[in-house]
Write a structure and sequence with these properties.
Layout lengths: L11 E4 L5 H9 L8 E4 L3 H14 L3 E4 L15 E4 L6 E3 L4 E5 L4 H10 L14 H6 L7 H4 L6 E7 L5 E4 L5 H10 L6 E8 L6 E9 L4 H14 L7 E10 L3 E10 L3 H8 L9 E8 H9 L7 E9 L5 H9 L8 E10 L21 E9 L5 H17 L2 E3 L11 H6 L3 H11 L17
Helix pairs in contact: 3-9, 6-13, 7-10
Length: 451
């Protein structure tokens, strides 16, 4: 293979000829089998700028990597340049009591910083996920119903555009770009190198709640899902939770849920009571400093996993038959699957207080997000698991509306409408304005070509 002309690139540049490439490739390919041409680990904005200009000069496609948690692996690709900003991870508290972070900051880093100052933060649930990717897709977390989505706390961002310029975006400067980046910004308009967030009021403790029903049969799972949809009707906005109905190799069928309640444990227990199904589901409540609650969530995440998943928005109550059909989807796992599950994520509260057209995140009036997932360990059994999902997705799609861009699904047809609803036409116009040559195009990016 002919060596690349790397003139113009700065930062740590890794190619297939670099000694560290194989180690880097193995790290990424534990879950995603992709082979980038060049990886640039950026430490400065100039590194980002130079990488973009090099890619344009050499006609190499760009992928942007922050936390590297894109569910479909779009933060890496074959024969591309990966602009990795994970080393740009500075955080400061500015004079206006706002948090300004660089684009490579991860959830756990931001939680640690804000928590050390006594503040909660409406961040994501995955500790090593990038804050920028989380926020740019809207951002659901265990504080969403009380503090809003991640993008609702965003007050300004800076990105490097296709020309290498730094663009600032807020309500006054480039407001159309700011609108678009709150729900559809991931990879579509440029490389986000900084974000500024408003901080909520300080909070000392939150109630970390967990529910668990080992050996929950299909009937109990159905009863729980029915209780869940009615529980959300008048739910105290201080509570945000999710719950999984699952079938795992280790446990069989079970139910597990968790969440944050911004109030004392006695009140948290009372709020959770309708989900306990007359004592058939166990409840655990711990009153913890916010940072300790975040660590309790972090401890449950594996280092990595091979999975296929998606998330859809639910706007109505399901009938008994629909619930039975949904639960039936996970009663048989795919060959090699160690986990098959349905997960529900509560919406409402502060999320629904914002008009669907005020930010690019359209599905604010949904009751909750419904996800379906399969996890496997043997890479050779990926086709069987993908087929398992492919067979089940049409039914989930038929009773829901739209897809959550942070839980993407590569086979999705008409994905722009699915991810962005009636905001899709406006997003195409904004994209044409700020990236006229499709420099930041990627699978399931905003596509301006006629359909």
């Amino acid at each position: 293979m002919k060596k690349l002309n790397l003139k113009g690139l700065t930062g740590e540049v890794v190619t297939r000829f670099s000694p560290q490439y194989e180690e880097t490739r193995q790290e990424w390919n534990r879950a995603v089998q992709k082979f980038p041409l060049v990886i640039v680990y950026c430490s400065t904005v100039d590194d980002v700028r130079n990488a973009i200009l090099w890619a344009r000069k050499h006609e190499v496609k760009i992928r942007i990597r922050s936390g590297g948690h894109h569910h479909e692996g779009y933060s890496v690709g074959n024969g591309v340049i990966v602009i990795d900003i994970s080393r740009m991870d500075g955080i400061v508290l500015n004079n206006n009591e706002q948090l300004k972070i660089q684009g490579g900051v991860k959830n756990e880093q931001l939680y640690e910083f804000a928590g050390s100052l006594g503040y909660p933060f409406p961040g994501g649930t995955g500790p090593t996920a990038g804050v920028s990717g989380y926020t740019l897709g809207g951002g659901w977390g265990f504080s969403s119903r009380y503090l809003g989505l991640g993008c609702d706390s965003l007050i300004e961002l800076e990105l490097v555009d296709y020309t290498g310029r730094i663009l600032k975006a807020n309500q006054q400067v480039n407001p159309d770009l700011f609108w678009a980046c709150r729900g559809a910004g991931g990879g579509n308009f440029g490389v986000v190198v900084s974000m500024t967030f408003a901080l909520p009021e300080p909070v000392e403790n939150v109630s970390f709640v967990e529910i668990y029903a080992p050996k929950a049969d299909a009937k109990l799972q159905e009863t729980f899902l029915n209780a869940w949809q009615y529980w959300l009707e008048d739910l105290d906005e201080r509570m945000t939770a999710n719950a999984s109905l699952y079938n795992s190799l280790e446990e069989g069928t079970a139910i597990y849920g968790r969440g944050f309640f911004y109030g004392p444990p006695e009140e948290a227990a009372k709020v959770m009571e309708p989900l306990l199904i007359n004592g058939k589901i166990q409840l655990f409540v711990r009153y913890l400093p916010f940072m300790e609650a975040v660590r309790a969530v972090d401890a449950t995440y594996p280092e990595y996993e091979r999975f296929k998943s998606t998330g859809r928005f639910v706007y109505r109550k399901f009938s008994e038959r629909e619930i039975r059909n949904l639960v039936g989807l996970i009663q048989k796992r795919a060959e090699g699957s160690i986990f098959a599950g349905l997960t529900v994520y509560a919406l409402g509260g502060k999320v629904s207080d914002v008009n669907p057209f005020e930010t690019a995140f359209f599905y604010r009036q949904a009751d909750y997000i419904l996800g379906i997932q399969t996890i496997w360990e043997d890479p050779g059994l990926e086709p069987e698991n993908i087929q398992w999902m492919k067979k089940r997705f049409p039914y989930v799609k038929s009773i829901t509306k739209g897809s959550f861009v942070n839980f993407p699904y590569s086979p999705l047809r008409h994905y722009e409408k699915a991810y962005f609803g009636w905001n899709a036409p406006r997003l195409k116009k904004v994209n044409k304005k700020y990236d006229p040559y499709n420099v930041f195009s990627f699978p399931q990016g905003i596509n301006r070509a006629p359909r």
